[in-house]
Every structure is written in structure tokens, then in C-alpha cells.
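Ex. 9. Protein: Cytochrome P450.
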Amino acid sequence: MFALDSIKKSKLPVISIAAASTLFVLYAIVKRTTRSTRKPKEGEIPIPFPDAGFPVIGQLLSLGSVPILQISKWQEALGPLLRLKMGKQQWIMISDPFIGHDIFMTHGAKTSGRPTGSYGYDIYAYNGRGIVFADNTKKWKNTRTAVLSILAQNKVDEYGDILSFEADALIDSLVQNNKNGDEQDINPMKMVHWAAYNCIMRTCFSTRASSPEDPLFLEILDFIDQGGKYAGAFGYLGTFFPWLTWFDNLAQKTEKMQHFVSSYRDRIFNKLIADSLQQENDCLAKGLHKLMDEFELDDLDILVTMSDLIVAGTDTISVSIRWAFAILTHHMDVQDNICKELDAFITTYRRLPSFADREHLPYMTSVQRECMRYRPTVPFNAPHVVNEDFDYQGYHFCEGDILLSNMYLMHKNSTAYSRPDSFTPERFLHLGNKTMMGSAAGNIQQRDHYNFGWGRRICPGIYLAETQIFNVFVKLFAQYKIHPAKNGKYPDLNNFVDGGIVLMPEEYSVRFIQREDAVLV
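Predicted C-alpha cells for Cytochrome P450:
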């Protein structure tokens, strides 16, 4: 965190002069924008009431400490399409999944860009490399195609034993302190993070952390946490006001970000990639390296892309599992139904199910979907940028507009979901053995949730993610159930921690209690 008292006194006069200069620039821009404001078109998306915004900066300072809450209040009052002025940027918030599908899928050729001039694009991704922050260019398309080939269903299935092993390791770690029926309270956060990390590290680099205290694991966890803060909406002032980039430079924020990426991220991932190429075991890094010539990639492309996979594959999966544990503690009846379904499979086939057996476990897979709908992992999808003007149902979208999906409200849409505030796994039983990946790529009427994004920007690792979550559910509920802590306190489902990119549950403790009626394999 940057504090005023951390700025050296020798710089204070400079800041005072700079502040005065800024006021003059602000005044000039206000005058100019007042004269040049265009006349709104008929049907234009409403902007929040004037009291919520200021000249030049717009709604930037009106969002509060948790933007998703304030934006949701505005959208509940003003409708599913909302235009916010964020400094130099125009943001359009979308809270209706059907509108989101039309804009990101039907108009996908015009809405798949990424904003430049940000920490993510400029610094982390070295001007748009990788798959997360890269703009809609040939380089991004080549990189994404290569990544999709190494994350294809048949490729992920080859890692089945590895993913199963890591699920076992997670459950063992959660119950290791249980003795003679005395189940201990445990905060699962660190263990779940460790398990998610090991799954993605073993598939990407064929390595793992032996414990949650592993130095490399802690280093990468710190990188993910700090990087998430930098990549958050307010991490880089130059994103909103290019003419104030000098302030980021003055406060040494830009320099700190660049140093953080080059000496911290790059040091770690260059070594991981080099080590993986020397191993006999196959892994995603080796697979991507073999595709370099075919897809015109270089070493920096590989570095940023592997970083993308580790960050996305650790944080989001960890948060999804922690929310699931928290939710299911409140629903013992749902846990009972999962256990009955698993027991029936084990009794019939004398083994634990794999992801290929999901057609026999429609209720359990429906619970997984409902957990991700009921408490979304992210507040907003990664921002899309409009590449070309277009009209949609009387609304005009301009080139350069930034589009974000309000995941909180999308998953509470009463047209898409009956009784959206109710935790109801049965709502997804009709999807049968259809994967989340299949739902995300299909008709909007068949989508289960929207956490993985939209259209050309949809997450390429969906199949890997849902396989991991499936394995954790199988290994856990075949032998255990989740109970509240000894003091009777349940996890809080109504509050969360804003992690910048993700919405995390507040820390909680639960007990993982052995099932007396478990069917032994």
C-alpha cells in the first residue's frame, strides 16, 4: 500500500508544484469537455444520476471501496445496461446474461479487444503477450490456438491420475489432525490454495509443492496476490488518465510494477520453464514450446502465457472450492444427496468415479454448477474493448468502449434462474453429463453460469478446472461431510473479501467429519 508519509520529504515541493499544474490541466479539460460533449442519441444507455459523478473523473470516485456493490445498486435502479465515465474511459456494465450473450457472441468480432495502457497489458504482458491481457491481434489468436490445443479434453484426460492424486492429498491434509473421532476445526484456505497450485503446476511444469510451506509455493502465492492488486481497477492511475502517468512515475509505482514483473515473476517462471524442458515427463510448458515455430511464438510469449495459466489456474479454482465448502456447510441435506449418489456408484462399480463417469453423478455435478452460480468467483469478467462502432437494440456502442459483465447480477437474473436467491442444485439436473465447457460454448438457454467468460475470450482451461473440482468432491464426500466449527459458527455467505480480480469468502473454520455410513472401496 502506498501511504503519503512514505514519500520522501525532498519530493514534497515537487508534488505541490505538480498538484497545482494538475489543477490547471483539469480546469482546461473540464472547459474543453463541456464544450465538446456530444448530444446523446435516442435510446442511449443511461448514466447514473449526476450526483454520483464529477467532471473529468466521472464515476471513478463514486464506486466506494467495493465497486461491485455500488455498481449493482445503480444497475438495479437503472437497468441492465449502464454507462460509466471512468476518467478517459467509457465503461459499459452489462448485468443481463442474454444481452451479454448477444454482445459478446453475436457481435464477438467487434467486442473481443482488450484495453491497453494498463498494468496488465503494458507491464505484466509486455505490451499484449499471452492470452489474458493481449488485445485481439494475430499474435493473441496464435497463442490462444496453441493453448487450446494443449488444454484440449483428450490432453487434460492424460493428467487424470495426477489430478486425482492431488485431490487425495488435499483431503488428507484437511483431516490430518482428526484423532479418534475428535475432528478439529480447520481453516481450509491454505490447503485448498496448495492443492489448486499443485494441480496447475504439475500439468504446466511437472513439479509440485510438498507442503503449503514450500518456499516456491509461497513465492508464487505472493506474486498472485500482489499481481491481483496491481491488475485491479485502481492499480494504475495511467489507465484512466494517461496525462497523469507522470504521477505513477513520481510515486515510483510504474517502476515498482516493472521491477515486480521483471525480477520477481520473470525470475521464477524462466527457471520453471527451463527446468521443465529438461524433464522426461510431458507438461504444458513443453507442449507449448514445441508449438513455437508453428504459431510464431517466442520465449517471451511462452513466459507470459505460462504465467497466465498459473495465476488463473490457482486463484480462481481455489476460491471456487472454498466457496463450495462454505455453502455446503449450510446444506447438510445436499451433502446427504451427494453421498447417496456416490455410494450407489461405488457399490455398483467397486471403485471411485472419474470425471468420465459424470453421467452417473448428475446431482453432484449439478451441485458444482450451483455453487459457482450462487457465489460467483469473480465480480466482473475481464474487460472487453469494442473494436468497431455498432448498434444493439437501439443502443450505440463506440469504438474504445470497455465492456464488463456484472457477474453478481447476472447470476441473480430471474429470467435465467427461477428463485435466483435460493441454493437449488436441481435447477441443473437437465444438463446431465454435459460439461461446463460444453454449456459455455452452447446456446444461452443451456448455460449454467458465466464465470468462465464469453465468446472468443472464454477461459481455455474450463475442462481442467471442472475436472479438478469434480475430483475434490468425489474424494471428499466418499468418506467425509463438512460440518460447522465446534462453536457452532457457520461460514459467512453474505460477506466477502474483494481480492481485486476475485471475490473470496471471508476466512472460516469448519470440520471434516468421517462418515460412519461410508461405502468402502
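Check your answer against this statement. The beta strands are 81-86, 89-94, 384-385, 390-392, 395-397, 402-405, 480-484, 496-498, 503-505, 510-514.
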